[in-house]
Amino acid sequence: xxxxxxPVIMAPTTMELHDGGAIMEKSRLGNWHSRGISKGEKRRLSxxxxxxxxxxxxxxxxxxxxxxxxxAFFVISSLTSIAHNGRIVLCSIHQLSxxxxxxxxxxxxxxxxxxxxFGERTNAIKFFADAGFPCPTRKNxxxxxxxxxxxxFDNVLSLxxxxxxxxxxxxxxSLVNMTTEETKWNLINSFKNSxxxxxxxxxxxxxxxRKEAVIERAYDTSTLKQLCTxxxxxxxNMTRDIGYYWLRxxxxxxxxxxxxxxxxxxxxxxxxxxxxSKCDGFIYGFMTFLCIGGMPFFLEELKVFEGERFxxxxxxxxxxxxxxxxxxxxxxxxxxxxxxxxxxxxNFHPGFSHYCYFCINLFCSxxxxxxxxxxxxxxxxxxxxxxxxxxxxxxxxxxPSNVARRITDIPKFFWRYPMSYISYIAWSIEGQYKNxxxxxxxxxxxxxxxxxxxxxxxxxxxGIQTDYSKxxxxxVLVLLLISYRVLFYLALKHRDRASxxxxxxxxx
Length: 508
Prior knowledge:
Elements: H1 12-17, H2 39-52, E1 57-61, H3 69-84, E2 88-92, H4 98-101, E3 106-111, E4 114-120, H5 124-130, H6 141-149, H7 152-162, H8 180-192, H9 195-209, H10 223-240, H11 242-262, H12 273-286, H13 295-310, H14 316-346, H15 352-379, H16 383-398, E5 413-414, E6 417-418, H17 419-422, H18 424-437, E7 441-442, E8 452-453, H19 454-461, H20 470-493, H21 495-507
Parallel strand pairs: 1-2, 5-6
Antiparallel strand pairs: 3-4, 7-8
Helix pairs in contact: 10-11, 10-14, 11-14, 12-18, 13-15, 14-15, 14-20, 15-16, 15-18, 15-20, 18-19, 18-20
Family: Belongs to the ABC transporter superfamily. ABCG family. Eye pigment precursor importer (TC 3.A.1.204) subfamily.
Main location: membrane
Subcellular location: Membrane
């Protein structure tokens, strides 16, 4: 549960109100691989989270949907207690029992965007009776109200008549000779001419004449506490869900072992020049594709974020920063495990500094790739489409690198300028080429000739410039990492606007 907007001290009455959730204490929500609480319990939990933030106005869309009669009665009773303590509770409910219906204070009936009734619940039955549609004896009033305004009942009647079924329910006798459309407009016109409508208009007029009052929060949470809370919660989710990072760590290890055996002790012979470059391209080019496996989990987290942002519990910047911090231990684990396995099995350039650079470069590459995946997840909400888009972005970043062709040989338009400069895979591979080849000497093509220096191979065979240090490549990766996080922030900030523009464009 997110505590970003919880008050520091909660009143005893508030604590007593939520004792009904004690049965779910220490219970896990569950996910795709572990069973948790039921759908009804999840609904009650979501309502409880909203109640704990103590909002001045609580808007609930079908809070009793999927609940049994006892659970529905408990939920509405709790909401009634909150309403009687000075807060406004608005619920939209399609079907409810008479016991739950009697807990409400006011009732609004809508049909096709028109107001059928708006007033106290206790006066609704009398209003329908005065309009010529009395509620039959021993019938649930909400069911009678729906029967009068819902066009679905007309479809049922027409189907029954087409099947020559004449035993219409006795409670329908007063309406059987009148369509729902006629009943609905009779009720709408009756309401417009009733005292209930006049009372509503008078209340609206009084509200308009009042001076605007700014409702301030009774409590506020510091930015640091929000960041710590979100980071802790996100880290717990990543730890508990084996599919978020643990499976990916396992896959990275398996792929690293396979690549290690494929390029085992590649050596420094003249035949090892091409395999070394291909190994570097494989590591940074294809292993980053495994980041796409986190897309479903990114989308699930964004759904939670959307709901909590709508409640103004925290901002986009806090969420972006907390998601990055919480993922750091897992990305470091991936980099160290995969980097250690590959470095020793392939037998890259010896030296602890070269090993450290290899792991740091791999860490930056994976972090930048995850940043690009988050940007895609923020812009594309459909899971399948998001995975396809993320794969397309990865391929687009792979093409202007040295994996397929030397950067100096690719077309200048678009591919070299600007794609080769914004491709994080190109910078990762270039840095690793320098880290591996600079300082090494390879056997000559003709025995007895001078050994071939790694710097010569970089310039003449791989087309890599050695005018600047390999750490400049890492610096560019860090800059790209920050840039993608900023893009992620902007995508979250303007997500609704971008989605509406996209939908409008596609519809046209």
